[in-house]
Amino acid sequence: MPAPLLELKEVIRRYAAVGGSGSVPVLNGVSLAVASGETLAIVGPSGSGKSTLLQIIGTLDRASSGEVLLCGKNLAELDDLQLAEVRNRQIGFVFQSHFLLPQCTVWENVMVPSLALPKTLPAAKDAETTEARATRLLKRVGLGDRINHRPGQLSGGERQRVAVVRALINKPQLLLADEPTGALDYASATALGKLLIELNREESVTLIVVTHAMELARQMSRVFELRDGNLVATA
Predict the structure, then answer these.
(1) In tens digits, what is the pLDDT along the chain, a chain of 235 residues?
(2) Does residue 208 contact residue 223 with C-beta atoms inside 8 Å?
(3) Are 141 and 164 in contact, with CB atoms under 8 Å apart?
(4) What does residue 70 show for φ and ψ, rounded to 5 degrees?
């Protein structure tokens, strides 16, 4: 049986209490294994720690104790520069807000994460260039005629599709989505959820979604509820 792409072992996250007396537990020993190519949803009430867990998986926060392993590598052993490289090359992020640069075109926004990639290694002759990948993916998500538009000229659903393509541009192994449909109307949210599932298959990317939308969660292969700081499988 192949090793999981992502593995959490007894992850605990505590924050200092207001006033500096003691600490407040948010995650209480979360353990999880996620296979390559899998889809997974994490649900739970506001304040339950869903986003905290996703930020720890995505190396935007560090666990108080426990281990987070990506491709067998213990992320706690990496320094900030190494973690930044992991985020850029192995993990893609989609948030509730698209965080697009308003002064840049759609295509330029998608290309931003690629600017940090090293240019020293020659590409294979048949390899798709990053520029070609950006154009192909934008056409794939229905934005081929919006490539030279700026975010202010797009609808909310279109801006979020740009954010999805930007998250995929560096061919990450893991795509993390934090309430990706939370700011969208029903039709746009439904379309985006379907698109995420399709891209999971087409791009062979592992997908973890934090959401309040049970309709989106039920499209994932597994659903967990974060309850009292622990993950409980619901489907």
Answers:
(1) 678 999 999 999 998 877 667 788 899 999 999 999 999 999 998 888 999 999 999 999 999 999 999 999 999 999 999 999 999 999 999 999 999 999 999 999 999 999 876 655 555 555 789 999 999 999 999 999 999 999 999 999 999 999 999 999 999 999 999 999 999 999 999 999 999 999 999 999 999 999 999 999 999 999 999 999 999 999 6
(2) no
(3) yes
(4) -120, 120
Would you call 113 helix, strand, or coil by DSSP?
helix
Cα separation, 148 vs 174, whole angstroms: 28
Distance CA 210, CA 224 (A): 10
Q: Residue 106 region, left (φ>0) first, then alpha (ψ -120 to 50), else beta?
A: alpha
**Structural domains in the chain plus CATH codes:** 36-61+90-117+128-233 (3.40.50.300)
Residue 54: name the closest of 175, 181, 167 by CA.
175
Q: Is the distance from CB of 116 to CB of 170 less than 8 angstroms? A: no
Do 110 and 151 form a contact (C-beta atoms < 8 A)? no
Angle between the N-to-C axes of helices 130-140 and 156-168, in degrees from 0 to 180, rounded to the nearest 10 = 140
Instruction: Assess contact for 92 and 175: CB atoms under 8 A.
Output: yes
Angle at which helix 186-202 crosses helix 156-168, to 10 degrees, equals 20
**Cβ neighbours of residue 9 closer than 8 Å, sequence gap 6 or more:** 31, 66, 67, 68, 69
